[in-house]
Each structure stands twice: as C-alpha cells, then as structure tokens.
Amino acid sequence: MPATKTLPQSAADALETAMDEAADEDPIVLWWDDGGYLHDVIESVAYSLGYEFHAAERTPLELRADPPRDRTVWYVPQVYDGQVDWFKDIENTGSVIEQHIGKLAARCFENDRIQAATIRTAYEDAEDRERIAQTFYEGLDGDGGLPSLKKLQTEIVLEGHDDPVQFVLEHDAEELPDGDDLRKIRDLLVDDGIAAVEGESDARTIVDCTRRWAVAEWLIAEGLEKGRFPEEYQSEPGAGIGVSRPELQSVLSKTERKQELANVYLDPGQQFWQEILDSHDDPWELLGCPVGASLEHRLWEEWRQSFEVEEYETCITRAKQRHERLDSIYGEIPWTRVWKQAVDVATLADELETWEESGDTGDVVDLYGDFENGTWQIDSAVFDLIISGEPEADLPQAHPATSTLGSLRSHLVECQYLEYLRDLGDLVVDQIDAGSPFAGESHAHQFFAEEQEHLQSGESVALFIVDALRFDLAHKLAESIRQELPQLEINENTWVGTLPSDTEFGKAALTPGSKFSFNIELQDGDLVPERNGRKITNHRRRTLLENDGWSYIMQDEDDDVGWSSEQVAYYWNDIDETGENELTNFEELFSDRIEAISNIICEKLRKGEWDRAYILSDHGFVSLPGHVDIDDIRPPGDEEKVSRRWIAGTDLNSDAPGVLLDEDAHLGYLDDDAKISILTDPIQRFRNQGIPDARFYHGGALPQEFVLNFVTITQE
Q1: The predicted structure's pLDDT at residue 264
Q2: How far apart are CA 600 and CA 604, in angstroms?
Q3: Which of 126-130, 172-176, 427-431 has the highest mean pLDDT?
Q4: For labelling, which of 326, 572, 595, 651 has a CA lying 20 to 30 Å from the CA of 172?
C-alpha cells in the first residue's frame, strides 16, 4: 500500500487540526517530539501556514520568555513526561501534539494505519533512531514519488536498501540481521517470488538459495528452458511496463563491488546448476549469462575443443563475444583478461595457419608489408599476446584455463612463430640470391628525394625519427594518433630500410641528399655509410640536416626554440635502448614507449599546427620467444667487420654464413668492393658479438628488421 502524504503534509494536517480545535482564537500549539528529528519539518510547515515558530533550545521553560500574540507553534525536542505544569493553560486554550517522526511517518499511510504501526514501533524500538529517521526523511519527502509501506519497511530492516532481493544478492550472510529481522527479510523475499527460501531461518541458506534462484533467472532469460529447474526456482516473468531484466543484472549494473561479486558468481566452488548446464547441447546459446562458474567452465572447454580442431575463426568470434559480455558487466577482472587473451591466441593461430597453407613465395616486401593482408600482423598478434601476460594465473585453480591456456600460448610463440620466422628468412635468401631484390620498392635512402616536393615547399614539416620502430609498432602508433586527433589525415606506407638494418646505416640513410649520393663501403676494414663521399657520423648527420634548414632535436632535450622552426627533426631512441638493455619484459616496456611517443607527437601537432609530419624509422627488430637456444656461429676467417647479425669484407663468398650481398644485389648504395653476409635464420648470431641478449636484435635480413612503415600526417 503506497503512502498518501509526505511528512510535511502530515505535519500540516496535524497543525491545522490542532489550531482549528483550540479554544483560543490565536492559540499556541505545543509539539512534543521524542527524539527531536522533526525540527526542520515543523518549522518549515509552520511558516508556510503563517504561524510563528519557536523551539526550545535547552529547556521547555525558555519558551515562556517571549509571550506570543499570534498563532504560534512551540516545539520541544523531547518526550513529554507529564511531570510539569508549565503548559496547563495551553492544554485549556491551545493544543498539545505528542508525535515523534515514527508516528508522523505512520500517519502518511492513511489507507493502512494498522500495518503502518510497524514503522512507528520500529523507530521506538531502534537503538539507532537517527538512521531510521533519515530513512523516513528520504522516503517521505515526496521527491521521486511516495514509497509503498513494504518498501519503507524494507529500508528500515536493511539499513536504507529498498530491495530485499538485490540486497541479499549483493551481500554475504554475515551482513544480514538475525532474529526477527532475518525472518522479515525472508518473508519479503518470498513475497518477491523466491519460494526457495520459504521456511528457512539460517542466513547462509537464505543467501545461497536466493543466489541460485538469481542465476537460474538469468539462464532462463538467456533461453534455457524454465522447466529444467525445480519449481521453487522457476522465476516468473517480470510484470509492469517495459522489458524486465534479471535481478542480478540490476545489481551488477549499480554496484561498486563488481570485483567482489565476480568472485562470488564465477567462483568454481559455487557450481550453480552444473548438471542442467552439462546436459544442455550448446552452451554458447547462453553466453550472455555472465554468472555461474558451471557455464563459464563449459564455455571454456567448448572453446578449447574448437581450438584443437583448428576452428580458429569460430574461436576468435566466440572469445570476443564472451570477453565483451564479461567486460560490459564486470570490467577488468581475471575472467575478462583470460577471454581477451583467448582472442589473441586464436588470432595468432589463425594467422600462422594461413601462412602455412598459403605457401606464398612472392615478393617478400609485399608479402610482409601489405597493410591489409601482410604477415606483419603475425608479429602484431605475438606482441599483443606477450604483453597480455599470464592472466590465467589470477584465476581460481579450478578454472580449466589455468591448465590449458599457458600451453597454447607457449606452443604458438615458442614453436610455430619460430618456424614462421625461419620460413620467412628462407624467402629473403631466395629473393636476394635471385638478384635485384626489392626492385620497384620505396627505399629509405630515397626518402628526402622522393618527398622533396613537400619537404622543400615552404610548408611547416616535422620529422619524428624513431629508432627501432618495427612495422607493427608503427601501425599501433598511427592508430593511437588517429584516435587522439581524428581531424588529421594519417597514411601508412611501406618502405625498405638499408641492409644491414643497424642504427648506424638506417639513420645515415635518412639524411638530406640525392638518392644517388648515399653509399655504404668498406674503409680500412670498417663498413661505413656515406653521403657524397663523406662518412656520416652522428655529428655529420646533424650538420646535413641543419644545413638543409632543419632544427635537430634529440629526445628529452628542452628545446623550445627548435620546435618553433618551420622544419623540425626529432629523434627518439628509447625503443632501441630498451630492447638492448632490458632482457626480460621489453614488450611491456615497448607498449609504454608507444604511448609516450604518441603523447609527444600529439602534443607537438596540437601546438605547432604543422602542415605535414612524418614518423620514420631507421630499422625494426626481431623479437624472439623467451625460451629459445641461440646458435652462436663462427664468422669466416676472411671477414673484416663482424656484428651480431652480419659480417662484412671484400673476399666473402657464398660459403659465408647467411645470404651474401654484393654488387650483384643492385641495391643502389653498396660499394662494388664490399660484400656483406647477413643472417636470416632467427636463432643464429655471430659468436661473441654484442650483449648476451637472446631475444632482441637487429642488423640481419628478416622483414621485421628492414621492411618499415613510414607514417605521413597531414591536415585535412
């Protein structure tokens, strides 16, 4: 039964009746309030009716100090004990009201005075009267409509919560009251249709039954036949206007305790309705239900079986759907992260299977660097998989992913990915041995000549030259900038870096000058890059750029003057330095670096309003699995310079390790006398060269090292 009046309306009725029934024409109405919680209500109502209002601050006698002349309300915030005779005259000429907030609240329910007495006694019997008074204030102020008596009773018992079902679904048994209050909650649950708790008197049992009912309700809402459940758990469809939704869904949409409730409703120790779910033919019909470990485990086992029979597209679709569902309900929790990684695992498996089945032996640059179908996406999938870590470690041990996901991940990354790298290396060897490799491609040493129209047009231009920005990382960087600055036009293009793909040669290639002026030759046994016959050192590179009108800024330099120039070349070395020095978790660090680079570029583009900007790189890198044995090989005795991934000399022949580059390669920048033998096998390196890092290196001839993604940014 809903309330018919608010607290102020009931107070107004009481005051007006008292005034009308008084013997005096300008009476005093004396209001005794046991508890003193009606002060603001009575004061506001008195003034709204045109009455004077005076409240006793310390003792009722102080009200006598100022005799009233008009209709007046005297308010005393205490119980009337009947022992004083200060107000006998008022009893004869005016009127006395003895009502605390509990009595006044009961008067708000005129149509059910008998049942409303329960809220009066709840106030009188309460140890914490202030809490119940606040419940009356909030419930009977008229904002948002008037509550039902049941709703108000529930809020009193549940300390402000107005829905007994949702309260029990969210709180553990320890948070329920005991005794009569627990029985009241049980009866309220039964009234709300949860027949399973009828007659129960144990808080733990009441909570468990209510949760089982709620999980069943959600499964039924997703399409599981209601008749499969015991009758007391067969929830009835919600009544009223609009589409009803499961009670648990309402709880999870409001609560700030999503993590805690995920541990409750996905807890393997709570196998809600396992037998029913085991007998259901297709659990994926129920994937929208994000509660119940029984369903979660069944979904994972079905997903794993699809993976084992190589139904990778199905695995990707289903893992995405389950991830999105759990994420929309709980946000970032271990179960969500596991399904996210399941997407990455299936994506990588699909990419590798496509590679194995294609048998593609075409141009290696197009094969790797095609933006729609290039195998650079395999590296991206591996990268995503590695940085997502081991999410199954945070799951309860009983979850089936704890025993399966790690082995799937390691087999892909440590076995199949390695085989892919070896196959790719063999294709590079074949293409170089065939002569004139990478013909018709855009080469990095031609960049200034190819882009001369824009670089010397008077436009403001910024070059962001990022050391070791591998193809897939450049794509991630471009995507990040697209999201941050959608008003810019961002294009990605495939370029071929220098061989060997070392910083010294890659950065030397990205200097002003004709494409014919770049050269790599042997000088006194040292392989050096040149422009116009002069060796390019770090100092020389800076001089070439500055002579061509560029401001030259290194990472972390505080150079506001340089950034004010119309042409700026900014060098970022963090990725290469991280890979060379961090031997354990550099993928995670690379991810952070990409975010940092994106922030810098976006900041400069916002401030500088550049007409055009480029993101360039000198080389990429090979990222090997965490557990792999590197085969240290000896260079031939006639080498003149040895690095980790290449050797150079004048007398090297085809018996040298790796693939031989010489004048027959027709790269356009290799000296006629210099011969370079470059490794393509991903697990080989030359002995005793470089730091003992078996995961990150460059300088060789895998596409990951020399096929580059150059990003062009223009104002639309």
Answers
A1: 94
A2: 6
A3: 427-431
A4: 326
Whether residue 280 is predicted with pLDDT greater than 80 in this model: the reply is yes
Q: Output the average pLDDT for the chain.
A: 89
Count of H helices and E strands in the chain? 29, 21
Please give the Cα distance from 245 to 231 (Å, whole number): 20
Residues pairing with 72 in the sheet: 28, 52
H or E element, residue 488: strand 488-496
Look up residue 321 and give its two tokens: 């759907």
Q: How far is the C-alpha of 702 from the C-alpha of 621, rounded, in Å?
A: 9
- Closest by CA to 266, choosing from 186, 211, 202, 224, is 211
- Decide: 379 and 623 in contact? Cβ < 8 Å: yes
Query: In the numeric block, which tokens belong to residue 492?
Result: 């990605």
Q: What is the signed CA dihedral for 366, 480, 443, 453, rounded to 10 degrees?
A: 120
Which of 710, 622, 712 shows the shortest CA–CA distance to 443?
Answer: 710
| All residues at 6 or more sequence positions from 264 whose CB lies less than 8 Å from its CB, including other chains | 211, 270
**178/183 Cα distance (integer angstroms):** 8
Statement: residue 692 has pLDDT above 80? no
Unique residue bearing structure tokens 């009961």? 106
pLDDT, residue 567, reads 93
For the stretch 139-191, pLDDT in tens is 888 787 788 888 787 777 776 566 888 888 988 888 887 887 788 888 889 98
Q: Nearest-CA neighbor of 232 among 193, 200, 196, 197?
A: 196
pLDDT digits (tens, 9 = 90+) for 467-507: 989 999 999 999 999 999 999 999 999 999 999 999 999 99
Torsion angles phi and psi, residue 408, rounded to 5: -60, -45
Show the tokens assigned to 44.
């506001």
For residue 132, what pLDDT is reported? Answer: 87
Q: Please state, in angstroms and as integers, the Cα–Cα distance from residue 410 to each residue in 341, 349, 390, 620, 622, following that order.
A: 13, 12, 11, 24, 18
CA–CA gap between residue 134 and residue 562 (Å, rounded): 64
Sheet containing 95-98: which strands, arranged edge to edge?
52-55, 72-76, 28-32, 95-98
